[in-house]
Amino acid sequence: MTKPAVQVNRAPVLTLWGAVVAERLGYDAQASLSLGKALSGLNAQAKGRSLGIFQAKKTPDGGPPKKVGLGEEFWIELCGRGIPAKNTDDGIRAVVKDKPVDTAGVQQYLEKKFGEDLDRVKEAMRALAESFESEELASRAYSLYEKFRPVIPKGRRGWGAKGDLDLDLIRSLAE
C-alpha cells in the first residue's frame, strides 16, 4: 500500500510544481526544470527577506534594484512570478545570477528531496495540471500550489521545515 503523503519541505514542492506547470504550458522538460528551480529560488528569497533572514538589496538612492542585468534576454511568467530567461545552445533556460540553471542539478535535487516518491508526486501534479486548459492553469497555478503545499510552522520556525505533501489532496483539486 502506498502512503498518501510525502514528508518534504516547500522548496522542492514548488520547484517540481513549477516544472510541471511550465511543461503543461508548452516548455520542454529541461526548460521546465530550470524555470521551476528559478521560481522556487525567487520565492525563497522573497520569503527569507520577509522573515529577516536575508536583507533586501537596494540601489544607491535607497530604492529597490531594477530587474535588469541578470543575464536575461526575456522574462517568462510562471505561477504569477516573472522568471529571467535566455536562449542557450540547449534551448530556453532560466537564469540565476547571469548563469543558466543547470537542469541536471535540478533533477538530482528533486531525486534527493523526494526519493522514491518523486514519480508518484510528479504523476499527481501532472494529473492536476492537465485537468486545466493552459490559460486557466497559467492564471491559477500559484493558488493551486497554496492549497496543496505542505503545512509548516509560521515564521522562522518554518524555514526549511518539512510537512506532509498530501497526494490525495493534489488529485482532488483536478477539475
List the helices and strands and how they pair.
Elements: E1 5-8, H1 10-24, H2 29-50, E2 74-78, E3 81-88, E4 91-96, E5 99-100, H3 103-114, H4 118-130, H5 134-148, E6 163-166, H6 167-172
Antiparallel strand pairs: 1-6, 2-3, 3-4, 4-5
Helix pairs in contact: 1-2, 1-4, 1-5
Share of β-strand residues:
15-25%
Which oligomeric state applies?
Answer: single chain
Helix content: 40-55%
Measure the end-to-end span: 26 Å
> Which word captures the global form?
globular
Count the strands? 6
Q: In the residues, how many domains can be counted? A: 1
* Poorly predicted segments: none
How many H/I helices?
Answer: 6
Biggest β-sheet strands, sense, barrel: 4 strands, antiparallel
Strand order, largest beta sheet: 2-3-4-5
Class based on secondary structure composition and strand pairing: alpha+beta
What value does the average pLDDT take?
85
**CA radius of gyration:** 16 Å
Q: List the helices and strands in order.
A: EHHEEEEHHHEH
